Amino acid sequence: MAADYVLETRGLTKQFAGFKAVRGVNLRVQRGSIHALIGPNGAGKTTCFNLLTKFLEPTDGSILFNARDITHLKPADVARMGLVRSFQISAVFPHLTARENVRLALQRQRGGNFDFWRSKTVLDVYNDRAQALLADVGLLEFADTTAVEMPYGRKRALEIATTLALEPEVMLLDEPMAGMGHEDIARVVDLIRRVSKGRTVLMVEHNLSVVADLSDTITVLTRGEVLAEGDYATVSKNPEVRQAYMGSAHV
Fold first, then answer.
1. Which end of the chain offers a freer environment for a tag, N or C, measured as fewer CB atoms within 10 Å?
2. Structural domains of the chain in order of their starting residue, each with its CATH number
3. 97 Cβ contact partners less than 8 Å away, ≥ 6 residues apart
4. Which residues pair with 172 in a beta bridge?
5. Does residue 226 contact residue 217 with C-beta atoms inside 8 Å?
6. For the residues 238-243, what does the mean pLDDT come to?
7. What's the pLDDT score for residue 248?
8. Are the C-beta atoms of residues 180 and 88 closer than 8 Å to each other?
9. For residues 167 and 135, what is the distance between their CA atoms, to the nearest angstrom?
10. Nearest alpha carbon to residue 203 among 31, 38, 58
11. What is the 3-state secondary structure of the chain?
């Protein structure tokens, strides 16, 4: 049986003033998998993410989501379709509680207007679902804590909760472990594994132990091109990957 790819790129290219940051990338993300995009600094990972989520327009090539060409759609359009991105830097509202952040994310499903200026009771219809999402990411005890007062790792969990509120089919996580200590990393790895059930995750991540632990498939980029792809055992043995990623014989 042929593999079921939820997200594909064909010859994806992005050029900036004569410099090709992404060069003819053919990426295929299998439905229901955790797929990691790795590579040294300047490899084109973030540019590729920005192309997939429509924050950049490609110079050439195409992007397909569920076999539909989304190459020229706007970011909000692809998010509504179920392709939702979580950023490297936490994007929650710092002076709202965890529950309020999730309720506002749930409100986005209505489209159009936000009810910042109306009574808080307007958003009470989202309380049960917000509580369920906070429970899913292990944040019930922080429901009434403002985001600015939460530990860094828990704040990243809150961002994942707000991403889940949009009911994504594919979650794109940009360095979800950035800036975390060992305890927080272990907690978020477990969280990603749990929330990936029934959906697809594509992530950029520098922590190779996380990549090895979580990923079904790894795509290695260097100089904007795909250097290798496979499971961790396969790519870690590739001498070109070792040289490009680490500048040595060790990955």
1. N
2. 1-82+170-185+198-251 (3.40.50.300), 91-167 (no CATH)
3. 143, 144, 145, 146, 147
4. 85, 202
5. no
6. 87
7. 46
8. no
9. 16
10. 38
11. CCCCEEEEEEEEEEEECCEEEEEEECCEEECCCEEEEECCCCCCHHHHHHHHCCCCCCCEEEEEECCEECCCCCHHHHHHHCEEEECCCCCCCCCCEHHHHHHHHHHHHHCCCCCCCCCHHHHHHHHHHHHHHHHHCCCHHHCCCEHHHCCHHHHHHHHHHHHHCCCCCEEEEECCCCCCCHHHHHHHHHHHHHHCCCCEEEEECCCHHHHHHHCCEEEEEECCEEEEEECHHHHHCCHHHHHHHHCCCCC
The closest alpha carbon to 220, from 210, 8, 208, belongs to 208
* Closest by CA position to 55, among listed 79, 38, 28: 79
For residues 50 and 56, is the Cβ–Cβ distance under 8 A?
yes
Q: Are 207 and 38 in contact (CB under 8 A)?
A: no
Q: Which two tokens stand for residue 98?
A: 């965890």
pLDDT, tens digit, 9 for 90 and up, residues 225-239? 999 999 999 998 999
**Residue 86 and residue 49 in contact, taking contact as beta carbons nearer than 8 Å:** no
